Write a sequence for this structure.
């Protein structure tokens, strides 16, 4: 059995008296793509933020590389942190830096490469995510939505993480760009053996590239393959995967 | 911890054995080991990855680009001992063209200097043109709104008078008080030498009423409100709120600029009045403390030297300064284009430029008043 990249056990998140997560258990294995779905306010982003340390859970444990992330000192945390790359919903590129400088930020911080090699590597990542060459000296404000997503992906990939968090990677993209982006994620995940956890509402992504699907419902998480989800009897899950939009997306998928 | 990066060369057969963890944390070492390696002159080269603990895409790229740079194209490169995963990774990075096409536009220093100066001059000129255009637009807007009272944004205007006038009162009063004490103190020590102590009152009262009161107020307001205007409108630009207004058929100039300009136009004279009064109190305070001048003496001297027109000359400049500060602040805010960096830059420019413009106009006023003999 392969060791999971990350293992979450009994995760509880609470804001005031409102409990968002009540005992989540799940693991992410190397190279797989997990799609996280759930209604608005079901705590998809909170789950991501808990794992990457932007939010401290009320209870539970998160294991990665054999240690509990929640018990690490800040210095140890910095070391584990390089395990994952994060792509935020709006890209969250640093607006005062060009695309290449953005991608080079992690390289500059964590490696002792010469500046030339650093720029070179940053450009390789930019190339890998399929951004045109002209884009590398542009500022985020000068990029289109799709290019911002790709640049953000390049920055998340800068240190070759084992785990990639994507927050709504295809939201706001046209269907052609979205499907190209899906393919890109799939290709990179396969080639570099990266586990991907993507929060998404894009049913096409769920049906085409996700190996497993995690559903946040009733403060718990249900995780399984697409087939398992399709047969689930929980009303919300049934509605989600058998609604008109889901049928349309699936129908298109089968037709290919 | 991960093992050392190693490249072992087997002399006879042109074999390079790669060992250790070739990953992000060791990239510097990978780069240095590759750079230190002498290229074997064999016609073919075999890379042996059996001892690799890890290979990530960055390290794979460093390897591939080193091969491209040092191994002649005719030489054959064989791989052995790599896992399937590592082979896939190498294939992935091999597909990437070498991006290192240097921009190659290294100009001489004098060229860059001239270009820089030219760029800034052009920008200065553009900034001036934009400012005039903005002012023109404001005037047209104000005129069209003035004729239609139903479009007056009273609530917003009153809010800005409160926010940028009344809320600024304490700090402006304090500044005016301290300023007149400083002037009075300096003046008194000099004038005492001539036995002309009483003239301290003239000095402080006239300078406060004519120049200092309004100038201190304007500078304070430029820092306080000019920056706030630029930042507020700038962030609204970044959030596309200004575009949203336009899409709803609302005029952002009428909604955002007009109430702010009007607000400062009213608030600045009020604050100046306050600064004048507090400044005079400061003048009396310093005279009483330093020169033993009584309240009655102070008042009679004040009556003798200060005429209403001294007071009105100072006050007449206030609305102009208020207008300038608000216009510069709003214009800078409107110029922000979709980035947090821009907001900071334009806010700084708003403060610097509005203080600059205020001082320029103050100089012009001085010349004008002197020429008119007021």
């Amino acid at each position: 059995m392969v060791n999971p990249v990350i293992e979450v056990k009994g995760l509880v998140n609470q804001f005031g008296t409102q409990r968002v997560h009540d005992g989540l258990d799940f693991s992410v294995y190397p190279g797989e793509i997990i799609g996280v779905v759930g209604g608005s306010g079901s705590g998809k982003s909170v789950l991501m933020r808990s794992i990457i340390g932007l939010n401290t859970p009320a209870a539970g444990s998160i294991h990665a590389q054999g240690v509990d992330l929640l018990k690490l000192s800040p210095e140890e945390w910095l070391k584990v942190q390089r395990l994952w790359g994060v792509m935020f919903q709006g890209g969250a590129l640093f607006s005062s830096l060009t695309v290449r400088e953005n991608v080079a930020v992690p390289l500059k911080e964590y490696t002792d490469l010469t500046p030339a090699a650093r720029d070179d590597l940053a450009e390789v990542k930019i190339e890998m995510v399929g951004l045109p060459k002209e884009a590398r000296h542009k500022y985020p404000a000068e990029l289109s939505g799709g290019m911002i997503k790709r640049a953000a992906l390049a920055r998340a990939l800068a240190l070759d993480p084992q785990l990639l968090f994507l927050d709504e990677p295809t939201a706001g993209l046209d269907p052609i760009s979205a499907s190209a982006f899906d393919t890109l994620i799939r290709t990179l995940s396969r080639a570099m053996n990266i586990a991907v956890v993507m929060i998404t509402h894009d049913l096409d992504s769920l049906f085409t590239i996700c190996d497993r699907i995690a559903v946040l419902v009733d403060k718990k998480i249900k995780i399984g393959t697409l087939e398992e989800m399709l047969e689930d009897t929980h009303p919300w899950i049934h509605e989600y995967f058998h609604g008109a939009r889901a049928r349309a997306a699936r129908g298109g998928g089968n037709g290919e | 911890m991960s093992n050392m990066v190693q490249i072992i060369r087997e002399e006879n057969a042109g074999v390079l054995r790669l060992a250790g963890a070739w990953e992000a944390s060791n990239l510097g070492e990978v780069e240095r080991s590759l750079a230190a390696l002498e290229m074997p002159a064999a016609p073919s080269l075999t890379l042996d990855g059996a001892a690799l603990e890890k290979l990530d895409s960055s390290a794979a790229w460093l390897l591939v680009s080193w091969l491209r740079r040092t191994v002649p194209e005719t030489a054959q490169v064989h791989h052995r001992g790599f896992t399937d995963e590592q082979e896939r990774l190498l294939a992935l990075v091999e597909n990437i063209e070498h991006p290192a096409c240097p921009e190659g536009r290294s100009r001489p220093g004098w060229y860059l200097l001239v270009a820089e100066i030219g760029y800034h001059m052009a920008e200065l000129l553009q900034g001036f043109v934009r400012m005039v255009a903005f002012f023109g637009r404001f005037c047209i807007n104000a005129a069209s709104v003035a004729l239609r009272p139903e479009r007056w944004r009273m609530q917003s205007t009153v809010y800005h008078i409160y926010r940028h006038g009344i809320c600024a009162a304490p700090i402006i009063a304090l500044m005016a008080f301290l300023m007149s004490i400083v002037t009075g103190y300096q003046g008194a020590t000099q004038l005492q030498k001539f036995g002309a102590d009483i003239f301290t009152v003239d000095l402080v009262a006239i300078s406060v009423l004519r120049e200092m009161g309004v100038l201190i107020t304007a500078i304070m307001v430029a820092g306080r409100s000019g920056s706030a205007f630029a930042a507020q409108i700038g962030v609204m630009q970044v959030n596309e709120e200004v575009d949203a207004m336009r899409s709803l058929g609302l005029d952002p100039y009428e909604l955002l600029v007009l109430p702010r300009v009007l607000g400062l136009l009213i608030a600045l004279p009020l604050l100046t009045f306050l600064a004048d009064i507090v400044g005079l109190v400061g003048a009396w305070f310093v005279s009483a403390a330093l020169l033993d001048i009584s309240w009655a003496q102070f008042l009679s001297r004040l009556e003798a030297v200060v005429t209403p027109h001294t007071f009105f000359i100072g006050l007449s400049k206030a609305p102009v300064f208020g207008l300038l500060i608000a216009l510069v602040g709003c214009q800078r805010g409107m110029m922000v284009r979709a980035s947090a960096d821009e907001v900071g830059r334009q806010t700084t420019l708003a403060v610097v430029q509005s203080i600059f413009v205020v001082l320029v106009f103050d100089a012009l006023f001085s010349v004008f008043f002197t020429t008119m003999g007021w």
